[in-house]
Each structure stands twice: as structure tokens, then as C-alpha cells.
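Memo to structure team: turn this sequence into C-alpha cells by end of day. - J.P.
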Amino acid sequence: MHDRITIVPELKVQSRDLRIDVCRGVALWWIFLDHVPNNIGNWLTLRNYGFSDAAEIFMFVSGVSCALAYGRAQRSEGWSGVTRRTLRRSWDIYVAFLLLTLACAILVHLVGGGHLADESNTRVLFDQPGETLARAAILQYRPVNSDVLPVFVLVHLLFAPLLWLLLRAPNVTLGVSLVIYALVHAFGLTLPAWPNGHWAFNPLAWQLLVVLGAWWMIEGERIRPLAASRGIRIASLLYLFFSLVIALSWQVTWLETMIPHALANQFGTLDKSNLAPLRLLHFLAIAVLASWLVPSDWRGFTTPVVRGAIRCGQHSLPIFCLGVLLTFASHMALLDISDGLAMQIALSLAGIAAMIAAATLLKSITIKQRS
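Reply from structure team:
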């Protein structure tokens, strides 16, 4: 048992695995592009080409990075250090969520509210500020596009016991996570939410991706040969092609006529809130092919665009919050200035450039503080 406990996930090299940062950074860009309504930029994202989107990537990679970071902390500081770090990170995300909620309300107020208050789910904050802020404090109220932060508050709050279980019984722990996920779909299990009882990301369902990411880092050496097998890669490729055709049929008229109506309807209402199984399978297929096509020493890491993604991924919390505010600003610009194609392209590029610039500034500040 002692030998088992000391097997803690670690990178094969001293530097951090840049694939984690790239995935997280690109996911942040995609989340921004997807959340700007009527924006041609979202055709550059995953959402229109399959069943899953950037959210699945973000959740899974968070599980991977948590296992790595807290695994190293466990070796150097023990379980008390892991607990201290997870609580501190959970608190940081919680504070960021509350500040982001207030910032969203201020932005909506500055532009006069109107229909934007309804679209952003801030109308209730203006109508019932006391109760709404109290509900936000216990993570039951969330403005639009900030929904993922309360999930991460809970994830980090509980990650120390999760890591303890994963290091001792990884497959059993994953099995329990799968059972919880199955109960969500069988009985509609969820956590309390306000005012409509709806979570955009039901924590009881989306926890599976976080657990999968952490489990992969701990048990990966045993299952990587299977995941890299030719049969799994072919099956993944076929499923991605199938989902591509179905997803494009929702957007392209001539393709829609070629897909049986009953089949298109069957896949047209994939439940994102509870992480529909077809969404989960789509993400896993992407993960299988991505791990095969992008090695840890990929030459593309040195290109300017990928370096920008890496910087954003290394400062995911502030860049996510910035992305939410940029979404509001871009939406207002499309409504008040112009919603033309040129404006859509300009706002998309400017938003990503602002995220890269902010991440670069944060990196330089961090370097100066360390020196």
C-alpha cells in the first residue's frame, strides 16, 4: 500500500507540459468567440463541427492540471499542504466569481440595462439586489457566461479528498464518478440553483470530466497503449466524422435535406447542462486523436499564435474573467455601433489580442515578483 500511495503523477520532464496550457488557452479563446452572439468568429471554434465544445476541453484539462499541481504539492508538503493549496485556490476562484458578477452588473447598468439585462441574467440582480447577492454568495445565482466558476470553486474545494482516493483506488474512484454521472441522467440529480433551478453546468455531471482528467494522469501509463491503438483511433475518427455531418446539418440548409429528419432531431437537443453522453464521447474522440497528433515536444509551441495561447492558459482564471467582460463589450458594440461582418471580425480579433496582451502583462508581473 505504501508503494501505491507514493506513486503521484508527475511530468516526464522538468518543464510544464505545454499541451495543457495550449489546450486551456485555445479553449478560453473559443469560449469568448462562442459567447458573442451573432459572431462569425464562432465558426473558428469547435461548437459548429461536432457535439462538444470548448467547455469539455476546459474541464478535462483542469482535472489534468490539478492532478499534476496538487500531486507535486503532496510530495513536497504532504496532505496538509495539498489541503491548504486547494482551499486557497477555491477561495481565489470564489472571489473572482463575486467580483465578476458585480462587474457584469455594472457594465449592463452603464448601457442602460434593457434587453441586455434579460440576456445576461442580471435583471433579477437589479430587481432584487439583496437576495440575488446572497444567492450569488452561496453559488446559487450566476450571471450568463460565468457559470463555470462556481463549478471550479466546488472542484478545488473537494480536490484534496478526490486526489487521496484516486491515489489509493483510482479505478474505484472513477467508477463512483461514473455512477454519479449515470444517476444524473437517470433521475435528474442536480444541486440547488436560483432563480430558475437550472445549472448551465450541472456540477454532478461535469465532475466526471475533472475526475477523468486526474485519473488519466495517475493511471495513464496503463491505458495509453489502448487509447493509442489503431482500432480506437479509427473508431474516434469515424465518430468525429459522423458528428461533423450531423452538426453541419443544423447550420447548412442543403446538408439538412440529406439527413433524415428523425435522425437530425435525435441529435439536435444534446443536453449540455448535464453533459450528454454523445457530447462526452465526442470529446473523448478528440482527446484520443489530439494526444496522438500533438506530441509533448511539438515544434508548433514556438509559433507566435501558440505562444499566445500558452500565456493565456497559464493565467486561466483572470483571462477567463476578462473574456466574459469582453463578451459583454463586444455584444454591446454589435448592438450599438454595427453588426456587420467587418465589425464581427474586428471584435473577434481584438478580443483575442486583448486576452494575449493581458496574459503577457500578467506573466511579466509574475517574473518581476519572483526576481
